[in-house]
Amino acid sequence: MGNNASTVPPRDPIAKTLSDLISPKQLALINRLAKTLKLDPEATCQEMYQAKLNEISRRAASALIERLNATLQEQ
Prior knowledge:
3 helices
């Protein structure tokens, strides 16, 4: 397994339970990273998952964070 295996977004990004929902810390980090990159966090989530930020799972949020971090590293 290469490094890219962890950045592959989950097939179903929507949280199924409240406990699976994106955490407040993840949401804050996504917003901070997107702001640094001059991106709209909601639009980025829509582009990646066709879903709203407040409805994605923790796993999907982790993949989005990894994607934003990778984009930041490329700059």
